[in-house]
Each structure stands twice: as C-alpha cells, then as structure tokens.
Amino acid sequence: MKKREHFGSRFAVIMAMAGSAVGLGNIWRFPYIMGQYGGAAFILVYTAASIILALPIFYAESIIGRRARTDTFGAMSKLAPGTAWRWAGLLTILSPLLILCYYSVVGGWSVEYLFKSLSFSFTEVPVEEVPHFFKRFISSPWQPIFVHTVFMALVAGIVLSGVKDGIERFSKVAMPALFLLILVILGYSLTLPGAFKGVEYLIKPDFSRLTADAYAAALGQAFFSLSLGVGTVLTYSSYIKKDEDLFVSGVGTAVSDLAFALIAGFAVMPAVFAAGLQPGGGPGLVFETLPYIFNKMGEGLPILTTLTSSIFFVAILAAALTSAISMLEVGVAFLTDERGMNRRSATLLLAFLCWAVGILCSLSFGSLRGMTLLGLTFFDFLDHLCSDWLLPLGGFLFTVFVGWQMSKDDVRDEFTNGGTKNVRVFGVVYFLMRYLAPVGIVVIFLTNLFL
Ligand code: PFF
Do the beta carbons of residue 344 and residue 352 sit within 8 Å? Predict the structure, then answer.
C-alpha cells in the first residue's frame, strides 16, 4: 500500500490548520460583525462560542480524521462500515469544493488589486475615483475570469506538490509572513489621525446590542472562521502523526484564528474611521473602502500608497491561498485514497471543475446578474447555501458521529493518544461533543430559518 504523507512537526500542523482557518472571514467579516454586535461584548460571546461549541466540533473532526487516516468519505466508511454515514462523508467533500468555486473568484480579485497597487494604478487617478474601480472591474467580462484563473492555478500548483512539499511548506512561510504584514498595517492604521474612534468602536462593550441573533452570528462566524463542518480539519488531521497532541493543535489553531481576527479588526477599523467613513461589511470593505483609505492617507506620496496597499493585498492573497488549498485538498484526498487516482490528475480535474463553476460565479456580477436562484445571484446563492446550511450541517454530522456512533473507548483512545495525554480534559470535551455542540448547531439552524 502507498505510504500516506504526514505533516512534519507540530508547528507544521498548526500553520496548515491556521492557514485554512485564517482567511477572508477574519479580515472583513469579523471586524464588521464585531462592531455590529457590540464590540467587546461580542468578543466575550465569540470566545465562549469558540471554546464551548466550535472547538469540540474541531476535535470531533480531528478524532475522525486521525483515527481513520483517510479522506472524509473513506473515514466514515471505515469507522462505521455498511452504514449511511458514508453519505455524510460525501457531503463534506462536496461542500468545500463548492466554496472553492466562489472563494477563488474573490481570491482573483486580490490578485488584481495587488497588481493594481504595484503598478501605481490607484495613484494615477483622483482619490474619489478609487472606490469606483471595483464595480467596474467585477462587472467586466474577462478580467475577473483571468485573475480567477491565475488564483486557481496557484492553488492547484501548491496542492499538486503534495502535503509536505506543497501545503506544509507554503503554510510555514505564508502564515508567519501574513502575521508580520498585518502587524505593519496595524501599526500604520493606529497612527492615523482620528484612529481612536475606530478603536473605541471595537472595544466599547455594548451589551444592549447582544440580541438573540448576535449569539447565532457568533457561532456562525466561529464555524466559518475555523473552517468547520467541511472536512478540511478532518482531512488535515488524517496527516497528523499518531504521537501528536490533538488537544494542543486544536487550541493552537483556535488561538491563532482569534488573535488574527482581533489584530485584523484593529488594523482595519481605525483606518476606516480615520478616513471619516462608516464601517460596512463584505467585499466592499476590502476592495472599495480600503484602497480608498490607502490613497487618501498617502495623497501626494504615491510610494506610501503603493507600499501600504501592496502589503495589504499580499496579506489578503496569502490568507485566501492557504484557505483555498485546504478546500481543494479534501477532494484530492478522496480521489487519491478512494479512487486510486494519482495526485496530479486528481488536483487538475477538481481544480478544473471548480474553475469552470467559478466562471458562472464571476459572471454573476456582470452579464449573468439577472440569472437568479431563490432571488439570489449564483455567487450569493452558493455563499448562503454553504455558510448558512452546509457548514453547520457538516459540523452537526461530525459531532453526532463522534458522540453517538463511535464508541467512547475509541474516542478516548484517539484523543488521549492511547491514554497518555489530556486524560483529564477528555471528560469535558466528550460531554461538549456529545451534547452541547449538536444542540448549539440546531439552534443556529433554527435561527437561520426564522430570522
Ligand atoms: N476559514 C476561512 C476564512 O475564515 O476565510 C474560510 C474557509 C476555509 C471556509 C476553508 C471553509 C473551508 F473549508
């Protein structure tokens, strides 16, 4: 039998897992949601949701992945042979690939904006013109497809090189670099005149804004941010060595993800307020507001604008790439483990399919804008389907699998490395996986259904 690849060290495991977790969700989604739901008060709820509900699901995926040492479909078939659980495995192969289709389009935008920054395109026009680039660009037919192609080719190139030489090597360089880059932006942003208002917006605890949907938003954000319920944690865990500490890698990933979200919040919001703008969420923040801010702050000094915006878009690109490779790897692991395909063919086939569907997502900002499903453009439809339904559904299935299908002895054996580690926390983690996490997810479902 072919030898299965492994991550080389604990550092590599955490960098790859954190690479999957830290992405656009941290840079634009977290600061915006945090501001909307009461700043520091939201951080408390978010942290609690991450520890009590998200982390147990992370551990459930880790336990399944490392126990079975194979892809999500194979893992379910191996640990619960002859049952319908394998279909859950199949679902969680499909969902990350669906996310990749539209994530790559946004990844492509960061390629375009990096190029625009480096070529001084923003500084050649009046500052007021800069936000208008975005709508013109995304609705144009060819350019967004071209950069989506470049992004997908980069993702495929990394995954093609393998777990150790591709994913591990890239994440070990990209993640520390990303951290440094965002610290530079943080320093710059905090020194801008008027930045304090942004800091205040983020830290002032406003408990009155902690409404029922704030709790659902915290949990939904924790899910998306930690890439839960889509088989990426399961698949990466199947590459973790048997003597590695699962508890530590989970905590390491969650802490890096939260730290990154907070730093990104403090790097982005003060700049927004310093420029006299209102915080808004979504792609508009990253691609309209921030380039405008970098230009406004660097007016008359094109080199400063070029430097700050290039650093920012390299950071976005790195964050998007490390997340996107984890999405593709889930499907590649399936085709190589279950169908005996070689890594090269599996990667090229799946990258091609996601690229083709991604074209429809890209065109849904332009010529296919009128083509809607349930009143949503194709891009928005896929986004809602995945974030609101498929992620929580996958997470629910994984915790129920570990809490109710696997035997408690097997779960304990895997989590404690055969009774040698974290034996004392196991009881708490098991309780959370078996009872609290599934109930928490049902609550998100109901909130999404009724709000
Ligand atoms: N966690 C990523 C982010 O915060 O941007 C998004 C993500 C990555 C979702 C990988 C799903 C996934 F499989």
Answer: no
Do 391 and 230 contact (CB within 8 A), yes or no? yes
Residue type, 343: R
For ligand 1, what atom is nearest to the CA of residue 391? 11
Residues with CB under 6 A from ligand 1: 20-21, 23-26, 96, 99, 224-225, 227, 230, 232, 323, 326-327
pLDDT tens by residue, the chain, 451 residues: 467 889 999 899 999 999 999 998 888 788 878 878 888 888 889 999 888 889 999 999 999 999 999 999 999 999 999 999 999 999 999 999 999 999 999 999 999 999 999 998 888 877 777 778 888 999 998 999 999 999 999 999 999 999 999 999 999 999 999 999 889 889 988 988 888 988 888 888 888 888 877 888 888 888 889 999 999 999 999 999 999 999 999 999 999 999 999 998 888 888 888 877 777 666 677 888 788 888 887 777 888 888 888 998 999 999 999 999 999 999 999 999 999 999 999 999 999 999 999 999 999 999 888 888 899 999 999 988 988 889 989 999 999 999 999 999 999 999 999 999 988 899 999 999 999 999 988 887 887 777 6
Our mutation pick for probing the ligand 1 site, out of 17, 167, 327, counting the most ligand atoms within 8 A of Cβ, is 327
Locate the ligand 1 atom nearest the alpha carbon of residue 230 and give its number.
13
What distance, in Å, lies between the first and last C-alpha atoms of the chain?
51
Instruction: Work out the burial of residue 393: count CB atoms within 10 Å of its CB; fewer than 13 is exposed, 13-18 middle, 19 or more buried.
Output: middle
Residue 243: CB atoms within 10 Å = 9
Encoding tokens for residue 192?
A: 């801008």
The helix/strand/coil state of 160 is helix
Atom 11 (ligand 1): residue with closest C-alpha? 227
Q: Which residues of 431-449 are buried (b: 16+ CB within 10 A; e: fewer)?
A: ebbbeebbebbebbeebbe
Give the atom of ligand 1 at the shortest distance from the alpha carbon of 95: 13
The model's pTM:
0.93
Round to whole Å and give the CA distance between 371 and 369.
Answer: 6
